Structure formats: C-alpha cells, structure tokens
Amino acid sequence: MLQKLARFPKKLLLQLDLLRRDPEAFGRNLIQITNPALFQERLLDILYPTPIHVRLQAGTAAPLRLNVLDTFWTRSGMTGGPNTVINLALRIAQLGMAVRLVSTVQTELMDAAWFAGHAAQLLGEPAPPIDLISAADPTRPLPLHANDIFLATHWTTALQLKPVLPTLPIKEFFYMLQEYEAGFYAWSSNFARVAETYGMDFWPIVNESLLADFLFTQPLGRLADPELRRRAVIFEPAVDATLFSPPADKNPSRPKRLLFYARPTNSRNMFGLGLLALREAARNPAFAGWEFVSIGSRGSVPDLDLGGGQRLRPAPWIAYGGYGDLLRGADILLCPMISPHTSYPVLEMAACGGLSVTNSFATKTPEKLAALSDQIIATEPTVCGLAAGLVQAAALVNSGRPRTAALNLPRDWATALKPTAQRVHDIAKSFQK
Predict the structure, then answer these.
(1) What residues make up the domain containing 216?
(2) Which of the four, 69, 189, 269, 335, has the lowest number of CB atoms within 10 Å?
(3) Residue 280: which residues within 8 A CB-CB, separation 6 or more?
(4) SS3 7
(5) Those residues with Cβ within 8 angstroms of residue 44's Cβ, 6 or more apart along the chain or in another chain
C-alpha cells in the first residue's frame, strides 16, 4: 500500500502532463474510472441503431402506405436534407398514397399544427394530410398491414429496417441517398455498417446526378450492380427562386464581402483546408478592404486572425428566411466540400448572383460544375488551389462583373420533384400485394 501511495504523485504528474498534451486521451482515462459502461461503448467505436418496434396486422387488405423513416422528425431539424425528403413525401401523398413520417428513435412527435403549416410552405399550397408517428416505443409498436412499404432516409434507418423486412409481405424498400454516407467514417466499424446497407434489396432515390455517378461505381454492396442503376430514381435539386435571387441594388455601398461556409464539426466541409486557403488568399492585394465573415457554424467558430490585419468574423445565426439576404449581401462564398455532392450553399450563392469557390472531387469535376453555373469556380482540394480560386473570384468582383443568376437547375421544387414522386408512386404500385 505504501509503495502505491509513493507512486501516486508521479502518476498524478503524468496525468496532468497528459491533460496538457492530449485532453482527449485524458478524458478517456477519466471516463474509464468514472463511467466504465460509457468507456466500453466508446471503445467499440460503433453506432448501434436502436431497434424499431412494429406489429403486423394479419389478414388486413389495405391500400399501399409509405412509411418514411428518420431517427428524429423535429421542428429544429428541418434542414435541407429532411425538407427534401418531406417535400417528396408530400408530393407522393398528393398522388393519393397514404404517407406516414415515422420517428425511429424519438417517441415524442412534432406538433401537428406546426407541421401542417411547414408542409404547406414547402409545397407552396395546402398540403395533403400526413400522419406523424413513432416506432421507437416498444409499448406502442407501429401498426403495419400487408401493403406497407418503407423509405429509409439515412443509413441508420436502413439498418433499423433490416431485421424487420423479412417479417413483412413486401421485403423491398426505397432508400433516399443524399450523400455517400460511408465516407463520413473513413475505414472503420461504422464504414462497414454503412456498406452493409448498400447490400440490401432497395430502390435508390438519389439527390443529384453527380452523386449518382459516384455511388454506382463504388464496389460496396450492390452499388455497382447495373440492375441497381436501372432501378434508380435520380433528380436534380431545386434552388428556390423566391428565396435565392440577385440583389435589387446592383451597386451597393457596403464593403466587398467574402463568406466562408465554416463547419469544423463536419469533416467533409474541410474547415482546416478552407481556413489555410483563406489566410493565403487574404494576403493578396485583390482582397484589400474586403470583409471576411464565417457562416454555418452555429457559434462554433470564433473571431479568427487571417494575418495582415484581416480578420474572419462570425455572423450571428439567422433563420432560413434571412439566409438568402445574407448571400445577396456578399460577393464570394468559399465552400469546400470533399464529397461528390455539390453542397447546397454553392448552388444558392450562384442563384443569388455571387461567385462560389469550391473544390472538385471524383465525378464532381470543374467542367460539370461549370455546366451548372459559370459562377462556380472549382479547384483542386488543396490550399494553393482554393486560394488561387479565391483570388480569381476577387479579381472578377473588383472588375465590376454583372450580378446575375446563372444556374442550370430547377428553380422550384415542383419541377424537381413531381416527376420523381410519380415514378416512386408507380414503382410502389408494383409492390402491391
């Protein structure tokens, strides 16, 4: 005992040194003592989607019903991806199919009156009724009948569905793919879990042809199977012209302004690479007198020094309705994205008449991005490449380029999603028992 006590000061000093050098490792050591169960869970480094609870109503013959799965359908979670799913679901409901939004983790439901208003705003007209329900409570399993079908919206919801499908009359499902989600986890246990879902019997619904071109070449699951490509329903995203359009004032008196879509917690947005590129570009005389503003981080990015007296200052978080005004009040958007997806802000800035500087990746080539808009400047995903793209954009702004919207994409969601909803509806009808 005395020997252990004698070693304690040395161990304490080692741990204090570890706290200084590697706070994360120190935290793991502390959790190992204070919360062994949590330590073991983190040690596994794997996401375990919770089971969903269903109850098949035997002997019932009912019309087709689409169950749209997300872990949480919440008011605060109505961002671009979930809104696109809901928009599609509403348009399928307009074709006469019953639709339910099913929470797979959260048991509490959104306020139905608020959701009705939100749905009407998405559609631009009164919305058809859609049920809000949860399958997360074992005491209230989701009632199903022989013609219930599913739409998974994220790899975890597809994995939650996997043990349920063999028990159902209709064993195929729709899978909404809005990103290459395996790439979120590098090579890891969770990478393998995402890849597992790509081997299931699904009908893909893909948001963007650039993403589809990448997905259907990947040697994971069934992605490279020509039959899966034949099944695929692919649509291009809309950039709503009522929200995203050039400013009325063609000669604003404000300083020239660059926005940096800075999201340190989302690795695919490459915050570090973008910041280094911005620091390099800010030294160029083309940026003399410019303002630099970070957006998209919900307060996680502080005021940062860019060198040479330039600073990157965070914008306050604003509601979606004011987001278009934010883009209109700037000249350049820096939005790195190490993904085959373009990223919505890149498209929205071009629709507002500004210049978007982003990077190429795989199927997302500079030529394909330029075909979407000549106001998108795509470079290699390097510090030098992005910095050169920013300087090029600044020179164009300084030369007095006209502020017009140039975007070869649908400018309303009805154009983008009505054909998609019809095709999904028709495929679903072929499942009917």
Answers:
(1) 54-238+415-431
(2) 189
(3) 383, 384, 387
(4) helix
(5) 189
What is the three-class DSSP state of 2? helix
Q: How many domains does the chain have?
A: 2
The residues near 221 (Cβ < 8 Å, ≥ 6 apart) are: 195, 196, 197, 198, 199, 200
207 & 287 share domain: no
Angle among Cα 140, 167, 152 to the nearest 5 degrees reads: 70
Give the Cα separation of 93 and 130 in Å (integer): 8
CA 8 to chain centre: 48
Q: Specify the CATH number for the domain of residue 315.
A: 3.40.50.2000
33, 34, 40, 46: CA torsion to nearest 10: -130
Residues 390 and 426 in one domain: no
111 and 167 co-located in one domain: yes
**Residue 325 sits in the same domain as residue 213:** no
Task: Decide if pLDDT at 320 tops 80.
Answer: no
Average pLDDT over residues 414-427: 97
| pLDDT tens digits, one per residue of 232-274 | 999 999 999 999 999 988 777 889 999 999 998 888 999 999 9
Q: Are residues 268 and 328 in the same domain?
A: yes
